[in-house]
Design a protein that fits this description.
By secondary structure, this protein is mostly helical. It has helices at residues 2-29, 37-41, 59-62, 69-75, 96-105, 117-120, 129-144, 160-163, 173-187, and strands at 54-56, 110-114, 148-152.
């Protein structure tokens, strides 16, 4: 056993040495590129027809004001250094029009965003009409700006009522998620 561990240790040393050698070779043989201010000021080359060039976000990380299994996790003392939370985040929920304008300014033509399930269905079976209206307004603004919306329905956050039942391992999760997905499809 000791012999096997010694051989494995030497093998690891050899692999690490080879990896470092390859890294050094590539660093020396492929110098870093530097662009002049003039090169950076040139207009971007046109993208092929149908190419989506966009941005992507997660509702929990940017919207602020969410209440889901991650906000509950964030509230537990000692789980996040400094006690930081996503309570306000980037305040996208109140700055959607501003954010769409920024996307348009950088010539994005696509935006992948997530619909916060806990916001649109805070209690099981109860839809938040105001939240659905707001997401509908976001989709309208995106289309008016020439930006293709792409919605993500599950971005690692669950409503508390779903998390308390076991989250994605709950026996009724597929049915509950299917209901949410159908509602999103119908409304948006």
């Amino acid at each position: 056993m000791k012999r096997l561990l010694r051989v494995l240790g030497w093998l690891l040393v050899v692999v690490v040495a080879l990896w470092l050698g390859v890294c050094a070779y590539l660093s020396l043989s492929h110098p870093r590129l530097a662009f002049t201010a003039e090169e950076l000021a040139r207009p971007a080359a046109p993208l092929p027809k149908g190419f989506l060039w966009g941005t992507a976000t997660s509702s929990h990380q940017i919207e602020g004001g969410t209440t889901n299994d991650w906000t509950r996790f964030e509230a537990q003392p000692g789980t996040i250094e400094g006690g930081d939370t996503s309570a306000v985040a980037a305040d996208h929920w109140n700055r959607m029009a501003e954010d769409v304008a920024l996307m348009k300014a950088i010539r994005a033509n696509a935006y992948r965003f997530s619909i916060e399930w806990s916001r649109v269905e805070p209690q099981e079976g109860t839809w938040n009409e105001e939240a659905w209206t707001r997401y509908g307004d976001l989709v309208r603004q995106l289309r008016e700006a020439g930006i293709t919306p792409a919605a993500t329905l599950l971005h690692f956050c669950l409503p508390l009522w779903m998390a308390d039942r076991g989250g994605i391992t709950a026996p009724d999760f597929p049915d509950r998620f299917a209901r949410f997905a159908a509602e999103a499809g119908r409304r948006l």
